[in-house]
Amino acid sequence: MNVGAKILVIEDEASQLELLAYNLGVEGYGVFKAETGEEGLLILKEQSIDLILLDWMLPQMSGLEVCRQVKRKKATKNIPVIMLTARGEEDDKIRGLDIGADDYVVKPYLIKELMARVRAGLRNRSEQSGAEVLEFQSLSMNLVKHTVSVAESAVSLGPLEFKLLRVFMETPGRVWSRDQLLDRVWGDNLNVDTRTVDVHIARLRKALSKASDVGFVRTVRGFGYSLDTSA
Ligand code: CA
After folding, report:
1. pLDDT tens per residue, range 77-91
2. The model scores a pTM over 0.85
3. HSE-CB of 225 using CA atoms within 13 angstroms
4. How many angstroms is it from 32 CA to the middle of ligand 1?
């Protein structure tokens, strides 16, 4: 279920960065690359990232500072951070875990081991969010039971509409472009185009409208869609 998860790699050594990106790509993850902490933080603002691999020793802003900023912001604090530290720097490890890093891997690492840690990080994350019920005003989504309701009346959704709604419920008010939704919901399926998004948005709206007069999914002309009630 984690195929297509988005992983941000922040690593200033180009060869390491490419090696990681290549191996993560082979595993089916979407990879975003940054060579500095600043670049990484920018990507975090624009993408919904599922896990961060963060090198400790970075030029300018250190890995420690990047981690601190990620863990301080509400929007990013639940993203698992795996720190990549140099051998023997035990103090770094402790400081990293102190400021909220979720795991660490000592360099030089075995790719196989790192991939196992990535899978574990993503698994923890989906278990955590799996325990949650997402709510937005009268809308409620149970991710464990796979049910949706509006003001207590059940709404029946197809799997793609369910995934779309989940993306919206996780980020109320955020405007998603059709391309971003394609990427997020359909992943690497290249046989679908942006009109497909419109089709499934229409189905989602229709299903929700059976249970409520409130239009939850708003069209933002020229951009895409967002979840709010000014629809
Ligand atoms: Ca480095």
Report:
1. 889 999 998 766 667
2. no
3. 24
4. 17
